[in-house]
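Re: that backbone. Tokens:
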């Protein structure tokens, strides 16, 4: 809360702050230069940073911290009223998210998944057998799009993290905060995984990484920065009409968006993604073309009127 105190003014009395005062702090934070995003600096993925202001994610985290602080302050009596109830500055909307981080449509996702399966099951190309990564690349895209792991969880996965229980393949994912979750793999994904473990990984194994699931052609554990290149290679095999650039995090959004659109239980989606709180799912939910129209066609309150039309 040092940043909040600095922006609000060190001489302000906490209980005197009203909603408009917090509005001003939130706006001031949004305009506050972010040293990590200086123009000309480069991100960990090798991309140039754009703009000196706080990112949408940073603004959202700051707002949540301020909200949690005032809830606590109201409970212990530091303030009589929580000023966050009167705040009018809304959280940054998802419209500002760059396209590559948004969810793919059904057609785009099907095109990418089809290309991934085709790559894994396709004819063996020319070249050195010990440098073939087709099975690995197909598996990476299928896991990202069907299960929605964080890219760090994917690259940290070990072969021993996958097991069978009751005839179903599971992935034990080691996530944030030391939490683990066992996620069942869809049949087509499990098939490619088994093929990769039986053939693809053995081709890449140089005896250096005994446990790592995903190996580079040099036999090293695949790095986070390598995953985008894999996605781009698979995307190149998608027909242009269904092709759209996407990041690993965009595939995580795709998983959540389509599971929620299919009316999958929200708590099940939360557990698949590895979140501690259901409220976090809001930022992993994108609007899909035609979704609202389809929902209104099967409106639960109007079903009984269909049979009485024209009566």
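Recovered sequence:
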């Amino acid at each position: 809360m040092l940043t909040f105190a600095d922006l609000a003014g060190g001489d302000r009395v906490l209980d005197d702050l009203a909603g408009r005062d917090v509005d001003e702090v939130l706006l001031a934070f949004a305009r506050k230069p972010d040293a990590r995003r200086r123009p000309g600096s480069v991100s960990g993925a090798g991309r140039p940073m754009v703009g000196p202001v706080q990112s949408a994610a940073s603004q959202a985290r700051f707002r949540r911290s301020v909200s949690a602080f005032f809830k606590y302050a109201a409970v212990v009596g530091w303030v009589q009223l929580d000023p966050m109830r009167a705040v009018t500055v809304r959280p940054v909307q998802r419209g500002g998210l760059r396209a590559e981080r948004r969810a793919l449509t059904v057609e785009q996702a099907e095109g990418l998944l089809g290309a991934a399966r085709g790559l894994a099951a396709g004819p063996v190309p020319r070249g050195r057998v010990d440098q073939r990564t087709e099975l690995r690349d197909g598996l990476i895209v299928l896991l990202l799009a069907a299960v929605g792991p964080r890219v760090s969880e994917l690259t940290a996965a070990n072969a021993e993290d996958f097991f069978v229980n009751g005839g179903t393949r599971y992935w034990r994912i080691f996530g944030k905060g030391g939490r683990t979750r066992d996620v069942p793999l869809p049949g087509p994904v499990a098939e490619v995984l088994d093929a990769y473990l039986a053939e693809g990984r053995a081709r890449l194994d140089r005896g250096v990484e005994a446990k790592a699931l995903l190996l580079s052609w040099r036999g090293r554990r695949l790095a986070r920065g390598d995953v985008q290149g894999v996605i781009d290679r698979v995307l190149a095999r998608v027909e242009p009409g269904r092709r759209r650039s996407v990041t690993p995090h965009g595939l995580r959004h795709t998983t959540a968006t389509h599971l929620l659109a299919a009316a999958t239980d929200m708590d099940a989606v939360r557990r698949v993604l590895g979140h501690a709180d259901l409220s976090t799912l809001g930022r992993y939910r994108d609007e899909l073309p035609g979704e609202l129209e389809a929902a209104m066609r099967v409106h639960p309150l109007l079903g009984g009127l269909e049979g009485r039309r024209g009566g």
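The first strand starts at residue 162 and ends at 165. The mean pLDDT is 81.
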